[in-house]
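We treat protein structure as text, and this decision shapes the records that our systems exchange. Such a record has a labelled line for the sequence and another for the backbone structure tokens. The record that follows is passed on verbatim for readers who wish to inspect the format:
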Amino acid sequence: MTRLFEKTYLKPGAAPGHGAHATEHPHADDATVSAWHYHREQLVELDPERTLREGVQTVDGGFVWLHLQGAPSPRQLHDLGAAFDLHPLALEDVRHQGQRPKVDFFDAQMVAILRQPRHHNGNIELDQLNLFVVGTHLVISVHSGAADPFGPVRERMRNANRNFNRLGAAYLAYALMDSVIDQAFPVLEHISERLETLEETVLDQPNRHTLNEIHILRRELLVLRRQLWPTRDVIARLMRDDLEPFTPELFPYLRDAYDHTIQIMDLLESYREMAATLIEAYMSAINQRSNDVMRVLTIIATIFIPLTFIVGIYGMNFEHPDSPWSMPELYTYYGYPILLGIMLAVVAVMLYLFRRRGWL
């Protein structure tokens, strides 16, 4: 089940930035590091460990992309901060997952945090992207997931996409953010299919398992809304502030990403309303089933009321040879079959009347 609270944090009262290079887990696994230099529509792979330790060497134009896949170890965070002079508060956000999507500026550095939903073992999990844009020549991305989602971006760079050459590091930052934002659409498509299945189940065969599935889905939608809603504010601020390297020439692409965030939020709101409606439909279906059961039981009880009355009368067996109030029918030769016929006739007449009134 998707966790409502997943943020890791420092001990209350600790100094800001104190946890950026903490070494509580000195033997933690390192993140996978990769580095590339892009210039004149050519993507050249660099030595990742050297780039991480020593920073960006002098390059003849273009920009460098350093990518860390997975949770960086304290050693890697220390090397990253020392080599590129990254702000301790930004590094602390890398180490402590579950951050709210946001964008900050530290001198010549832009730092953005986005959340990426994905399916894992039937649950929705949220990975975190920490994105650093240093000037116009360096992009650093740290993605917490186990799988690298940026293969298509590298493929576009290898295929000589001129936007990377024309707009530089800013376009790469946009491409990475847009890729993370678009990862929400497959998750929402899966949620849509679940909603359709649950709707059919609620109308046909509602049960406790169905209600439990609806509650799980509502919980996931709540978490997704809380984590994805601020993403549009991130994109809106990048368009509003007009800071290097996000120049107006990049704004049409940022507007497209902003439009995607609006679509995602519209779908999330629609699905939340549909999930709430499913709860109401489930309760209505259960009430309808209860009413149907009560109606059948009432009809059965109503049918047996006159039969019980007849049997009760003839079951008293009041008989006295000299009393005028005795029951002479007790000794009728065909009394038993006659009484059964009368009872069957009563049942038939009642069923006919119930059917005419639409109760059956």
Q: What stands out?
A: The chain has a mean pLDDT of 84. The radius of gyration is 36 Å. Residues 251-314 form the longest helix (64 residues).
